[in-house]
Amino acid sequence: MLLNAIFMIVPVALLVLSVVIATNNFKKKGNAKRSLLLQLASFGAVLSLCLIFPLAAGAVGEPTPAVDASAKGMQYLGAALSTGIACIGGGIAVGHGAPAAIGAAAEDPKNFGKAIIFVALGEGIALYGMLISILILNG
User: Fold this and answer.
1) What is the model's pTM?
2) The domain containing residue 115 runs over which residues?
3) 29 and 83: one domain?
């Protein structure tokens, strides 16, 4: 139980730390390219840690019912996050695109068909998030 909490907290803490270090580096030196490379390197390190540690923990023995329940909970959490964040992004896209589409259609009614496509693309983001959550829950 404690090991699972450590596996969940350490990567998040490392990613937050890397963001803080990269932003401080950019503020002090103003070198955006170096800050980006630092951020990508730290992301790669955290990704490798996340891939290696669960594989080592899984090699220890058979999964227990508590691990299965934890995996099911993480599955629900991942599905909720993918849908929620995609819907927030879609809402922001539609919130910016719809007034522009209305303004373009008000100026020239011929532009309505072209303008509504951008609103539909913003809504598509939310649909992709829902599709991913369905794949997570059924996979």
Assistant:
1) 0.52
2) 63-139
3) no
**Tokens, residue 46:** 């955290």
Q: Which residues contact 133 (CB under 8 A, 6 or more apart)?
A: 78, 79, 80, 82, 83
Q: In this structure, what are the phi and psi dihedrals at residue 62, rounded to the nearest 5 degrees?
A: -70, 145
Cα–Cα dist 124/130, whole Å:
10
Q: Nearest to residue 70, comparing CAs of 136, 15, 4?
A: 4
Report pLDDT digits (tens) over 59-109.
Answer: 555 556 655 777 788 888 888 988 999 999 889 989 988 898 899 889 988
- pLDDT tens column, 42-66: 778 777 777 776 655 555 555 566 5
